[in-house]
Amino acid sequence: MNQLSKHCRQESETGDLASALGQVLIQYFKEFPSAHLNLALSGELGAGKTSFARSLIQSMGHLGKVKSPSYALCEPYSISVEQHSIALHHFDLFRMHSDLEWQEAGFADLFAAPGLCLVEWPEKAGDTLPVFDLSIVLKGRQAECERDINVTAHSPAGQSILLKLES
């Protein structure tokens, strides 16, 4: 299991890491346009998960507003990669009370279709989600803008992406 740990002293450094990951993901989808990836974003309330997701999605080419999906549960985006369109689904499961709610919401099929599922608060779905290729854990520090970020690969695809992110 590969892991990258980074201490970000400013919010811009967190955004830079998310943007770098977004660029590596674009390269991955150029090579494997019909691939599916699952990314987990974990951390305490206010740790910067949605800001990280926003920077990642924008770095992948989305030009519009990136909204927090906390009320809708899922915000879909279409990202153009060469002649392909990559479906990106940004989930926020914070308001979920049980994994049964997640199952009844009917999003499971999105985790099998080509594209990218980015999930904030994945623990709210219990063990009903598939294995994540990458898990990203953000931990706030005493200074408001500082955070520690750990990115861990859990699959061969995740390991490939992490190696490219490290270089």
Question: What's this, in brief?
Answer:
This protein is 30% helix and 31% strand. It is of the alpha/beta class.
What's the helix count?
4
Distance between the termini: 17 Å
What would you report as the Rg, rounded to the nearest angstrom? 15 Å
* Residue-averaged pLDDT: 89
Strand arrangement within the widest β-sheet reads: 1-7-6-2-5-4-3
How many DSSP-defined strands?
A: 7
What is the 3D form? globular
Task: Give the percentage of residues in beta strands.
Answer: 25-35%
Assembly state of the chains shown? single chain
- The topology string of helices and strands comes to EHEHEEHEEEH
The biggest sheet, with number of strands, parallel, antiparallel or mixed sense and barrel status, is: 7 strands, mixed
Which regions contain 5 or more consecutive residues with pLDDT less than 50? Answer: none
Question: Given the helix and strand composition, which structural class is it?
Answer: alpha/beta
What is the helix fraction of residues, given as a range?
25-40%
Task: Walk me through the topology.
Elements: E1 3-8, H1 11-31, E2 36-43, H2 49-59, E3 74-81, E4 84-92, H3 99-105, E5 115-120, E6 134-140, E7 147-153, H4 156-166
Parallel strand pairs: 2-5, 2-6, 4-5
Antiparallel strand pairs: 1-7, 3-4, 6-7
Helix pairs in contact: 1-2, 1-4
